[in-house]
Amino acid sequence: MAKLTPRAQAYLQEKHFGKLATILRDGSPHVTPIWYMLDRGNVIVNTSKDRVKYYNIKRDSRVCLLVDDGYTYLILFGRARIATERDAKKDIESLAVRYQGEAKGRRAARGIYWKMPRISLEIIPDRVVSGL
Which residues of the chain have pLDDT under 70? Predict the structure, then answer.
């Protein structure tokens, strides 16, 4: 497992969008924009159980997460672990507040996202590439 440097952790604490790549059944990449958060040094993402990325990760846990702001970037190569010990509804609410603001985020989480079957994923990096 690759460790995130303090500089990488500080960058991930900022609000950027991530791009999560998973592997489709035929071996080709599947990339989607995604919210993420750093929680106690762990990179957490959240998705609904009806999404392609969830099925891909269940079949093959290898992922790549790109977090960037143009030329400044961080790439995490590794695996996604289904974090069953986490409260997925709490996580999606935290993510919605992070990206949409307090009022709008809570309203969206409770009115939309909580109605979906959610799962939280921890990205465990084997390799980190930094353009910071």
Answer: none
